[in-house]
Amino acid sequence: MLQLDSLRSSLIVSCQAYPGEPMRDPRTTAQFAQSAVIGGAAAVRVQGIADIQATRSAVEVPVIGLWKDGQEGVFITPTVHHALACAQAGAHIVALDGTRRPRPDGLSLQETITRVHGGSNALVMADCGSLADARAAEEAGADLIGTTLAGYTGERPKTTGPDLDLLRELAGSGLGVPIIAEGRIHTPAQGRQALDAGAFAVVVGTAITHPATITDWFASALSA
């Protein structure tokens, strides 16, 4: 089983493309992951069974796998079926919605995590949106807590950058599992701020692996 201490103070790169985009291809995802590892990524986060399989074969670093199904509510690895499929595809860590919202299959978060632990060697990263989510997820057996859904569940305002206040709140709450900063981290300085706020590791996606958005940032600034 993966030793989490290898990820302490590290950069995790999320390699994902949205449906319909030219780069939405498992081979491209794996190539992005390889490039990220060359640049210093200690782990990668990828979406979709084929992408997990391709990336697991392409890199030696830990793979955080998820399966998005839908666009609203609980859609990040929403059921135990999705979670076990990610583990079986080779994910070292399965990322799933770790909020307190009802899950589509009717199982509790604890039941879902228990089945993942019992049916695989994978760890579980709970993508949360608040301190209450994080506490419930830890109690449910999550191995890591992510701030991925901060600003998207209605419990907290959506910040323009990373939710540093939530990170500080989580870091000072006495949680016994690593806290992973994820969401709207667009610069190296913001990544450093996330670590300084108490994050165990930092996930960066769009600013590294989404050319359409990065291009729009520049184009919008030049045309303003």
UniProtKB/TrEMBL annotation:
Keyword Isomerase: yes
EC number: 5.1.3.9
Sorted UniProt keywords: Carbohydrate metabolism, Isomerase
Gene3D superfamilies: Aldolase class I
GO MF assignments: N-acylglucosamine-6-phosphate 2-epimerase activity
BP-aspect Gene Ontology terms: carbohydrate metabolic process; N-acetylmannosamine catabolic process; N-acetylneuraminate catabolic process
Pathway terms, separated by semicolons: Amino-sugar metabolism; N-acetylneuraminate degradation; D-fructose 6-phosphate from N-acetylneuraminate: step 3/5
Gene Ontology CC annotation, any one: cytosol
Pfam families the UniProt entry points to: NanE
Regions annotated as coiled coil: none
Catalyzed chemical reaction(s): an N-acyl-D-glucosamine 6-phosphate = an N-acyl-D-mannosamine 6-phosphate
Domain of life assignment: Bacteria
Annotated family: Belongs to the NanE family.
Free-text function comment from the UniProt entry: Converts N-acetylmannosamine-6-phosphate (ManNAc-6-P) to N-acetylglucosamine-6-phosphate (GlcNAc-6-P).
NCBIfam families for this protein: PRK01130.1 (NF002231)
Protein name from the UniProt record: Putative N-acetylmannosamine-6-phosphate 2-epimerase
